[in-house]
Amino acid sequence: MTRVFLTLIITVFLFPISVRAQTNTTQSNQVVTKIGNPSGPPPVSEGAGSGFALNFNEQVGEVCGGKIQIPNLGCIESIIPELSKSRKGIIKDSVYSGLGFYQCVGLVQTVIDKKLPVGFAKELAAVSVPGYIFIPNNQINKVQPGDIVVWSQNPNSWAGHTAYVVQSIDDQSFRIVEANSDGRGNVRARSALYRGNYENYLVGWLRKK
């Protein structure tokens, strides 16, 4: 009888404690699981040329004063990492053929390290560029890092404009690196819109096949 009585006491008093301990452990594990897997969108990805474009923009700001013109053209020799011979040639051609200022088409060519078959930016929307397809700007299509956006002739530029996409931000905007937006060979990174003011002239973009 004594042994049975002790067994009953242990069962009655210790079982609830065991249950509470298991429950607390389960709740604790659930909290840890939530902390370890936060919700939210994944980081925005970058295209293969985005790293170069962003570094180039930063370096031009540091060693060239944010602009590339005939008077300071030699500054490109100090850009780190050192530019390839072909990229240096593209920059120089762009400056000398652009009235002494680095041009928007020149920047895109510098990033992709390839000459484009156009004289003016707006022509990128009208000619066939080997290795690329043209995607029109509408309510459905969205840019990707690595795309080359094209603006048509507009009140700000009769030659149009182009830039290199480094980041897709959301359904309304994206980030670019561009040159000569001031008409004086500047290089900068900024956010751009699919629609709105100057962006109403955004006709589309080139994308690698």
Descriptive labels:
single chain; 209 residues; alpha+beta; endopeptidase fold (from Nostoc punctiforme); 6-stranded antiparallel β-sheet; 4 helices; 6 strands; 34% helix; disordered N terminus
Describe this structure in words.
With 209 residues, the chain is α+β, with helices and mostly antiparallel strands. The protein has one domain: endopeptidase domain like (from Nostoc punctiforme) (endopeptidase fold (from Nostoc punctiforme)), CATH 3.90.1720. Helices cover 34% and strands 18% of the residues. Helix 3 (85-97) packs antiparallel against helix 4 (104-112). The model is unreliable at 1-47 (pLDDT under 50).
Please write out the topology.
Elements: H1 2-36, H2 50-63, H3 85-97, H4 104-112, E1 132-136, E2 148-151, E3 161-168, E4 173-179, E5 187-193, E6 202-208
Antiparallel strand pairs: 1-6, 2-3, 2-6, 3-4, 4-5
Helix pairs in contact: 3-4
Order of helices and strands: HHHHEEEEEE
Ranges where pLDDT stays below 50 over 5 or more residues in a row are 1-47
CATH topology: endopeptidase fold (from Nostoc punctiforme)
Proportion in β-strands: 15-25%
CATH superfamily membership, which one? endopeptidase domain like (from Nostoc punctiforme)
Signal peptide: 1-21
Pfam families: CHAP (PF05257)
Organism: Candidatus Daviesbacteria bacterium GW2011_GWA2_38_24
Keywords: Signal
